[in-house]
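User: For my dataset I need records formatted as: sequence, then structure tokens, nothing else. Please produce one.
Assistant:
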Amino acid sequence: MTDTRPNPEPRPSFPQGTILGYPRIGRRRELKRALEAHWSGALEADSLEQAAAALRQATRARLGELGLGRRDSSIPESFSFYDQVLDAAVTVGALPERFAGLRAADGTIGLEAYFAAARGTGAHAPLEMTKWFDTNYHYLVPEIGPETRFALSSDRLVRQVVEARADGYTVRPVVVGPVTLLALAKPTDAAGERFDPLARLDDVLPVYAELLASLRAAGADWVQLDEPALVSESLPATPSALAAAAERAYAVLGAAVDRPSILVAAPYAQLSEQAWAALAAAPVEALALDLVRGPVPVAAAGLQSKTLVGGVIDGRNVWRGDLASAWDALASLQTLGAAAVAAGTSASLQHVPHDVDDEPDLDPRLASWLAFADQKTAQIATLATGLTEGRPAIEQPLAEASAALADRRSAPGVRDGLVRGRIERLTPADAQRGDHEARVAAQESALGLPVLPTTTIGSFPQTDEIRRARARHVAGQSSTEDYEQFLRDEIARVVALQEDLGLDVLVHGEPERNDMVQYFAEHLEGFAVTRNGWVQSYGSRATRPSILWGDVSRPAPITVGWSTFAQSLTDKPMKGMLTGPVTILAWSYVRDDQPLGETADQVALALRDEISDLEGAGIRVIQVDEPALRELLPLKRGDQAGYLEWSVRSFRLATAGAATATQVHTHLCYSEFDVVIDAIAALDADVTSIEAARSRGEVIDDIAASRFALAVGPGVWDIHSPRVPSVQEVTELLERAVAELPVRRVWVNPDCGLKTRDYPETVASLRHLVEATQAARVAVAARA
């Protein structure tokens, strides 16, 4: 590789160890609180900026304590106020025209426009949101068309580099790369569905080059460009098209006269052969490979001038890394003939909590098997020491990690003979429910629902009062009797509200549940939960994924008491609400010592027992949520059929024992419906509700084209935005659904649960939903 700068200075070497990113919401969700205070008007923009700067400063200091260098660019600058894809879109000026009035006079994009794009305003819908590859993180989908005007529109990342230098650190700024930014974008409405945003690559590259020059001038020695699109086979662009785009992009950026050294990172899976060859030959200085979800690649031309960063410590899970195996992988990487090899994480550590030492409630033996972000960073520092000083310098930590792994394999509860015996006795008939038409007839007779039945997805707002009551009970400041009476009062209020609104199938609101997965984890054997293990889901929203460490079983009923109490308050059908096996796995940290399908079957049997008990208690509508079905779909096509087979089997295993007259619902959100339509049909749920409002009903076309034979509820209210949809908006979505789908199969519901919303917007939105439905029923009757 030739440095084209006139009289170039020697480029700085890459550090021996690094991470690709770090949690950014704060150990105690400090950023969440600051953001929500700002959005509510209680915190000025300057104070929000100060809170963010303090969080960044604390992150740099902590990473330095854990062994990353202050001046060698091993510390990534990966902070975001909301989402890294939105950050990149804003930086290059790619906001839709509807937000043009929020730009500054000089065309730059500040926080007001940034948050408007993320959350929407009264007048403007936000950007669509969907899952980031096969993770539980959500990103905002850029909208790019021929008319999009690219220009460097934010200097925020540059200012953060300057901030770090003033604090004594030379950081490595992290930016979503140009190929991934365009590959994840959707066409603007003006462009039409057939437009390919990747066609704008040559137009956006000069802006990236300008950004690189600005970062270099600010003192950045290295920049990290994240290109996970290059590992995926599930995007609209083909792997060969993505590889060609990468070859073009990095030929241009690598040839820039004034830029930092470039690290191109490709997390989440193995690079395609074409992309690997293109990047190996590109004029960039370093490549980061995911060696947890992909093997060491074959040698390729061009590596002799590059550093290869081996992603040998898992950035996606919480198990303590096998340092001996990691060392062996780095040794294999060294055989490819690269200029240097460094140790790294497989992905950004934004996907894991901060610190195992911050979890006093965890069993010490279990804790010894775990590594959160801080422990993983320390493991990287250990491997870096080995690369610098030789393996003998790190023999002790390698042996300690191996001993912890051996202890985990032999610990009680990891394998339960009763659970495994039950799995072995299963037959194909256990996953078959019976004739669909017979179920429809039995359910119509039992439930007596009107055309276009209305319902919600499950949760109602988790108010501050609910959170305070739960916190008091957990802290021992209120008795169980008082807390349960509080919950009964809350359920009664929610049921009465739904009857007043005129909804047809009711829910109890789930005030007893802190989280739709953690609640079940707390009642199932084989799980542990954390106190401070927060992980960002999107924006200010964070979850505490549970840790599934052993064989799973259900010692006692979990939801039956609350569901039967709620049903006693109304004559309308009350849903029993369960979280499905795939979603429980997707939103937990799952054991990695057996195939996921085996673990899913264990969870499914526990849910099957719960459904049986709900039916025995008189509940005739049961919803088993699977919002993560699409999320876990492997990025490589060759792995997808096997995944869909076991994921569908686990759902059917959970639900197939239900009686013919019991109506089984499921819910999916942020799913590209057409990708998994056959699998969703194979779930054989009687009713499937799915996100549709933020994408303005695009999914309805996919449902209609697929001849989906089961009942479906395309969402008519985007609950991830504070906007209250008008009656007209809801009506338009309903009219589209009724025009394209058999009316007897259409349900009316929001996109998702209402946990994150406030009551005023919830009540107003549901009133609009019911009003629009009543008008639609009149129109349907008139056409009959």
